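Per-residue structure
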Amino acid sequence: MDWNWNETRIKLPYTSENFRTLLDTICRGENEFSQYDFAIWCDNLTMAFDDDEGEELNEYDSLVNGIARDIECQWDLYLINTYTLKELQTLDLSQVSLPQEWLLKWLKELNSL
């Protein structure tokens, strides 16, 4: 899968393995990409899973899809609940980070299988 609906600086194929690697990298603080790029990548991953019509997701891919969807939704909610409209209009999204405990929770959930 190498679709690119929304542009992101992360140029990895949309796979569950790459999702795990990216999330783990962020949790360790070793990411060279922004969490904004990761949120976009997560959104693209969920669209890639949705685009695979007729293919039943296995248990792991289904879990990855759910976590990726939660990340991209929580990103939007975090922005809306943290910043004013005026701030959002000029905010450099590449400088925004989700709370670390959220990321660690998602990684723990991912590792539960």
Notes: The mean pLDDT is 92. The first helix runs from residue 16 to 27. Helices lie at 16-27, 35-51, 59-82, 85-90, 100-110.
